[in-house]
């Protein structure tokens, strides 16, 4: 049984997945398995073999219905995972070789642990920058700290915190709900201040354009409705209210981005957010 299960959904990931897996193969901590779930019918094992990438710790699964979505793929991987710790990883994420071992040790003490990350604009119009300062070496986050963080954070979780999995019908809202349910259990999430993870955004990505704002608006509306119905797995009324306030804040930003696109703005959400905060 592996200590850490890395869960990666794959859809049209032929170009980026090999680099992501190569970084996992280079990890200093070797007691891991990686579950790669094809959601597009592609035989990723054969593609990787042609790239010279093969390892018995790589496990390959496929969703029953092509295009089921990343949350269905992640839940399939979670159900099959054998690790004590769960590490969701997107197919284009690039990790430092120390990442799994470092975050596994912190998650063993705190329940869940994330790391600082480089935010990199692949279009080249903004240099990479860090989400958190390098000092102090550890940051402890509550739900209120998430208001000022515009990019998705990536964590390693103790398996007991995430047994419920992802909400398969929530689309882009599921990741934050998954993380928030774990945060409710631990109260504070620990972040290692050294960056061991790259978050890349680019034109045409999920965080860029009008279609994204429409999908996000639908997700926020659905999340808030289900919160009112008490249907998202949060244990306390107080925390559920805090989640609602956070989602309303993010919905407000999304609507402001949508208005900016209507007025001719052509940048990503992260570009917009920098401009919006400077003039708010």
Describe this structure in words.
It comes from Candidatus Macondimonas diazotrophica. InterPro entries: Glyco_trans_2-like, Glycosyltransf_2, Nucleotide-diphossugar_trans. Keywords: Transferase. GO terms for molecular function: transferase activity. This is Glycosyltransferase family 2 protein. This protein has 280 residues and is an alpha/beta fold. The chain folds into two domains: 198 residues, Spore Coat Polysaccharide Biosynthesis Protein SpsA, Chain A (Alpha-Beta Complex); 70 residues. Helix content is 39%, strand content 21%. Strands 1, 2, 3, 4, 5, 6, 7, 8, 9 and 10 form a ten-stranded mixed beta sheet that branches. Helix 6 runs antiparallel to helix 7. The longest helix is centred in the C-terminal third of the chain and has 26 residues. The radius of gyration is 18 Å and the shape is globular.
């Amino acid at each position: 049984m592996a200590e850490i299960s890395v869960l990666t959904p794959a859809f049209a990931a032929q170009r980026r997945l090999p680099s992501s897996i190569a970084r996992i193969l280079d990890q200093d901590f070797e007691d891991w398995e990686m579950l790669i779930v094809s959601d597009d019918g592609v035989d990723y094992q054969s593609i990787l073999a042609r790239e010279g990438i093969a390892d018995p710790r790589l496990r390959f699964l496929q969703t029953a219905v092509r295009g089921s979505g990343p949350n269905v793929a992640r839940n399939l991987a979670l159900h099959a995972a054998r690790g004590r710790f769960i590490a969701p990883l997107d197919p284009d994420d690039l990790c430092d070789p120390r990442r799994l071992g470092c975050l596994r040790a912190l998650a063993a003490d705190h329940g869940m642990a994330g790391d600082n990350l480089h935010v990199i604009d692949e279009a080249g119009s903004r240099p990479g920058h860090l989400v958190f300062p390098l000092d102090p070496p550890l940051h402890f986050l509550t739900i209120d700290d998430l208001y000022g963080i515009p990019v998705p954070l990536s964590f390693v979780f103790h398996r007991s915190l995430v047994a419920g999995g992802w909400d398969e019908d929530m689309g882009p809202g599921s990741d934050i709900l998954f993380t928030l349910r774990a945060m409710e259990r631990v109260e504070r999430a620990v972040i290692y201040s050294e960056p061991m993870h790259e978050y890349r955004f680019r034109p045409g990505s999920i965080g860029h354009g009008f279609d994204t704002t429409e999908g996000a608006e639908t997700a926020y509306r659905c999340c808030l409705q289900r919160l009112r119905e008490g249907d998202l797995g949060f244990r306390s009324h107080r925390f559920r209210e805090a989640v609602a306030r956070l989602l309303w804040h993010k919905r407000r930003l999304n609507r402001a981005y949508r208005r900016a696109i209507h007025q001719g703005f052509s940048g990503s959400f992260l570009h917009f957010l920098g401009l919006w905060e400077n003039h708010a």
